[in-house]
Amino acid sequence: MRVDVTVGVPEPDKVDKDAVAAALPFGDVRVTVVKGGLDDKGMGGAEDITLAAVAVKAWLDTAGHGFVLSDS
């Protein structure tokens, strides 16, 4: 199985891609990090948050597995 993960964060160079890949239990995992997400400064202090936007795509090779796609 192939798994592609795209992570959007305000500071892409701070993301540990190996740690992201290790969090997925199966597959050949490829992690791409891009600028995105959101920094919300709130009112300062404990209310500050950083949001990451993450997309995960997975492909499973079903050749030879007997799976059949139905037209119905």
Structural write-up:
This protein is mostly beta strands and 72 residues long. It has one domain: 60s Ribosomal Protein L30, Chain: A (2-Layer Sandwich), CATH 3.30.1330. It has 1 helix and 5 strands, in the order βαββββ. It has a 3-stranded mixed sheet with strand order 2-1-5. The protein has a two-stranded antiparallel ribbon with strand order 3-4.
Overall pLDDT score = 89
Radius of gyration: 17 Å
CATH topology: 60s Ribosomal Protein L30, Chain: A
Q: What's the SSE pattern?
A: EHEEEE
Number of domains: 1
Percent of residues in β-strands: 35-45%
CATH domain class: Alpha Beta
State the helix count: 1
Structural class call reads mainly beta
The CATH homologous superfamily is termed Tubulin/FtsZ, C-terminal domain
Secondary-structure arrangement, i.e. CATH architecture = 2-Layer Sandwich
Query: Low-confidence stretches at least 5 residues in length (pLDDT < 50)?
Result: none
Shape: elongated
Distance, first to last CA: 26 Å
Roughly what percent helix? Answer: under 10%
If strands are numbered along the chain, what order do they take across the biggest sheet? Answer: 2-1-5
Biggest beta-sheet profile? 3 strands, mixed
Number of strands: 5
Topology of helices and strands:
Blueprint: E1 2-9, H1 17-22, E2 28-35, E3 38-40, E4 49-51, E5 53-59
Parallel strand pairs: 1-2
Antiparallel strand pairs: 1-5, 3-4
Précis, in short:
With 72 residues, the chain is mainly β. The chain has one helix at 17-22; strands at 2-9, 28-35, 38-40, 49-51, 53-59.
